[in-house]
Amino acid sequence: MICDGVENCVQYIDNFDINRGNPFAYFTQIIYYAFLRRIEKEKRQLDIKTKILEQSGFDEVFVSDGNILDSSDSDYNTIKSNVHQKMTYN
Predict the structure, then answer these.
(1) Where are the beta strands (DSSP E) in the chain?
(2) Are residues 29 and 14 in the same domain?
């Protein structure tokens, strides 16, 4: 996310008008909107991932072959229940 802001600052540095004044405000706005774009992009990626899980059925993704050790079995169930909870909130 930080790299997006730095990249946009370097990309748009030529558009800054020295006569207008405040470079801090100019670059702050560039970084702010870069962060908003990154957050929106990550939301879209999460929505796509959720739709793929819903379409394929998350039970198929979490199929155990019986070779899981007892200690990792609880981790498996925790992950499965977390995914199920997140899918029911949407």
Answers:
(1) none
(2) yes
